[in-house]
């Protein structure tokens, strides 16, 4: 379920530690107040606690919020720990994260944004 994010326009990762006791209201407040983003947008917002073995995902479905929770039985998520920062990640980086890999793969070929030619 968490890996199927086909209709999502953006994936935002809340770097650092998030209090995993927070539910929908608390997480949407973080999105609005700390990151100045709209929790009602077609975006997936990811949060991780200090143990790094569980994440929460917040998504607005049009008529209500969906809160997803994943706990790893073995291992940890490779979560960026820069405090008070939100990071836009790609679908590929999201898959790496769920597979237990770092989203910063040094040997991965990065996509190049096309520049308009005048």
From TrEMBL:
Pfam families: TnpB_IS66. It comes from the Bacteria. NCBIfam families: IS66_TnpB (NF033819). This is Transposase. It comes from Lacrimispora amygdalina. The lineage of its organism: Bacteria, Bacillati, Bacillota, Clostridia, Lachnospirales.
């Amino acid at each position: 379920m968490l890996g199927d994010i086909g209709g999502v326009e953006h994936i935002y990762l809340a770097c650092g530690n998030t209090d995993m006791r927070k539910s929908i209201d608390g997480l949407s407040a973080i999105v609005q107040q700390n990151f100045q983003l709209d929790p009602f947008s077609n975006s997936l917002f990811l949060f991780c606690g200090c143990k790094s073995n569980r994440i929460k995902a917040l998504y607005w479905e049009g008529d209500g919020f969906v809160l997803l929770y994943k706990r790893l039985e073995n291992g940890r998520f490779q979560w960026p720990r820069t405090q008070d920062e939100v990071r836009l990640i790609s679908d590929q980086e999201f898959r790496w994260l769920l597979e237990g890999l770092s989203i910063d793969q040094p040997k991965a070929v990065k996509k190049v944004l096309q520049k308009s030619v005048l």
